[in-house]
Amino acid sequence: MVNYWLAKQEPDGPRGYNVQQLKKDKKTMWDGVHNNLALKHIRNMKKGDLVFFYHTGKERQVVGIMSVISNPYPNPEEDNKRFVVVDVKFKSLLAKPVELEQIKKEKRLKNWELLRISRLSVMPVPKPIWDLIIKMSKK
Q1: Are 96 and 133 in contact (CB under 8 A)?
Q2: pTM over cut 0.70
Q3: From 1, 2, 53, 61, which residue has the greatest number of CB atoms within 10 Å?
Q4: DSSP alpha helices (H): ranges in the chain?
Q5: What contacts 24+ positions apart, CB below 8 Å, involve 10-15?
């Protein structure tokens, strides 16, 4: 069974990375996560899962879809084995980015972690929410 996730990245930050760069690179190691809850979510990811790529910072919008192409493994760049990563590959851009403001206005999304725990960088996306975001991107 496929699980659905959202992973945030700051496109303009010091370690800035955006969906266009991923599209060019085709795949990357999703790293830099240190929050315990976000790490727990990465540990629950598996090969074949789908992930929304969310731009933080000034943009604050869901912009694309990635697929998980590895199971979680310790970050080779870190000394501490609790810091895990997954490899992801570019799947597609959304038809149109879905902005945080649009998400906030949608009553069916009010209990989603994206709004409740706004600092969380990796979170699950229940299938009905996934489908709604896809639908919103096509409007």
Answers
A1: no
A2: yes
A3: 53
A4: 19-25, 36-43, 100-105, 113-116, 127-137
A5: 10/55, 10/56, 10/57, 11/55, 11/56, 11/57, 11/59, 12/57, 12/58, 13/57
Residue 96 has which token pair?
A: 């149109």
DSSP 70: S
What are the backbone dihedrals phi and psi of residue 108, each rounded to the nearest 5 degrees, phi first? -65, -10
Beta-bridge partners for 64: 53, 93
CA distance 26 to 10: 18
| Amino acid at residue number 106 | E
Q: How is residue 50 annotated by DSSP?
A: E
Q: What is the pLDDT along the chain (139 residues), one digit of tens a residue?
A: 999 999 999 998 777 899 999 999 999 999 989 999 999 999 999 999 999 999 999 999 999 999 999 999 999 999 999 999 999 999 999 999 999 999 999 999 999 999 999 899 999 999 999 999 999 999 8
DSSP 108: G
